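Subject: for your reference before the review

Hello V.,

The reviewers asked for a structural picture of the protein, and I figured it would be easier to keep everything in one thread rather than splitting it across files. Below is the amino acid sequence we used in the manuscript, unchanged from the supplementary table.
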Amino acid sequence: MTVITVKAKEQKLFVHCKGKLLASFRVSTAKRGIGAEKGSLQTPPGRHRIYKKIGARAAKGAVFKDRVNTGEIWDGKSQFGDLILSRIIQIEGVEPGINKGGNVDTLERYVYFHGTNHVKNIGKPSSHGCITMRCSDIIKFFKLVKKGDHVIIQP
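And here is what came back from the structure prediction:
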């Protein structure tokens, strides 16, 4: 079984399979910290699972809007906007009242792992709730994980 651990304090993501470290990546979690409430722009805590993987065949730098590839490719320079790039790994909470259901539902908040155009911010809290990565890293990460894999987000 593959387990993904996000350590917000370290701004790192770790991928383990059967107790063995497969990979680690620098990430950015929310600028506003850890929290689950709808509209908080925070990264939700606790246990999750991978709900859906989107963009398996998309080009590096492909721009997504509403989880659909727009056909545009990020130029590698523009910092305008908060782009969702290359791949999307959508997660859902599995802890009722913490990150599932009601006003704290991770899936309904559309929290993802995804590539970002704000690469200079990787390694420090700067997202609007998602866990953002460099485009090359999200592509590598995407290949390592599958639907249903466990995700643990720690403060």
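For the response letter, the relevant points are probably these. The radius of gyration is 14 Å. Helices lie at 135-144.

Happy to draft the paragraph if you're swamped.

O.
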